[in-house]
Known about the structure:
Blueprint (H helix, E strand, L loop, with lengths): L7 H6 L7 E4 L3 E5 L9 E5 L11 H22 L3 E5 L14 E7 L1 H6 L1
Antiparallel strand pairs: 1-2, 2-3, 3-5, 4-5
This protein binds guanosine-5'-monophosphate (5GP).
Guanosine-5'-monophosphate binds next to β2.
Amino acid sequence: MSYDTNNIFARILRGELPCIKLYEDEHTLSFMDIMPQADGHALIISKEPATTLHDLSPEGAAACIQTTQKIARAVEAALDAPGSLVMQLNGAGAGQTVPHVHFHVVPTSIGQLRAT
Ligand code: 5GP
């Protein structure tokens, strides 16, 4: 599938839309999810124009995982959460709604997961 340069995350990367930024480096950007599934729900996106994980370069994929590690540690610590859920959806058929590759980090506990 060709990359949609006007998707919401591409617009955030270009600075056309605001976000609550948590972290940025050469390859990735992390910010708060606008409709959080739990307090501290964060997103990590690649700066590559990639729709899904399959479209990322090996370097881009590695950078996303490294930033996801950083963010998961940080949000768990900030909220004193016992753990976190990392999610990554590929394709509308899997439930992906924004066609720019991204990882979710949701601080949570087993108890919260069982309750949903
Ligand atoms: P997906 O379902 O594609 O895996 O997740 C997309 C995520 O992006 C959803 O959790 C949704 O709340 C979030 N989202 C959608 N639009 C915006 C936006 O404009 N800003 C931010 N920060 N998050 C967004």
